Amino acid sequence: MTDPYGIIDLSTLKNPKAPEGAAGETGRYEVTVTEQELESVIAGSNRVATLLVVTSSRVPSGPEFLATLRRLVDAREGAVLLATVDADDQPRVAGALRVQNLPTVLLLVRGQLQPLFEGIVTEQELAGVIDQVVQLAASQGLDGDAASEGAAGDEDAAQAEEMSPLQQAAYDAIEAGDLAGAIEAYETALRENPADAEARAGLAAVRLMERTQGADLQAARSAAADAPEDVDAQLLVADLDLLGGHVEDAFGRLLDLLRGADSETKDRVRTRLLEHFDVVGAEDPRVGPARRRMASLLF
């Protein structure tokens, strides 16, 4: 990644080598995240719920907080994976995650990222959060073992080696920051095989990156609030919401635009919703209800 593209389902874009544990004192169920390994950690969240922690040794009480978090995660015996990001060593990862304060703790489940909290919290509060994560993982059918993520990552790497030339071209373009080149590669792949679900999801994700590149969230929200009838302003905020992991907000904003809209606006919003569905993934439980509501509003 060369720009802070925010939070999208990066597991649809790339599955590189498995993350290795960091040198030094780390937890038994911990991986250290670098720019090259972020996507594989996201892919691994399809097997095990992951707590993604962005911090720095400069944070007052930060090392003690991280040590407590490691101990609590280890006590769950692999039910949760801890993924740590050093914001000083990996500033572009922190930028991609749109981190504003340190430490920031996020939840990663099935390729989707949700913010949990910022700042130092007590051990009791941490324990409560982790218990809730374990319960959520069980409800989502995630029964993977954090200790096995290294082996799972090897499988992901093997799958990545089997990518088609066009998929590889798209991934290489993303790595180089050439979003137009990635879009072209995905569009070519879809022309050759319209049923290629991975190419369709990848194309939707890269288009989302392109539309939101350089956008300011607060300015966009203000513009949308000041002009609720401005379709372009509403579409941009919906994109930024999706990028930030606020899936329901993104879907809800777009669906609200369909009420009483003219045919041209309905077509634009429908197209954007379908792209959002591709980014999130058809298996996400939020997609089905949103798709049905879209159909009822369109017809």
Automatic annotation (TrEMBL):
Domain of life of the organism encoding this protein: Bacteria
Name of the molecule in the record: Thioredoxin domain-containing protein EC-YbbN
Alphabetical list of SUPFAM superfamilies matching this protein: Thioredoxin-like, TPR-like
Organism (species): Brachybacterium nesterenkovii
Coiled-coil residue windows: none
Annotated InterPro entries: Thioredoxin-like_sf (IPR036249), TPR-like_helical_dom_sf (IPR011990)
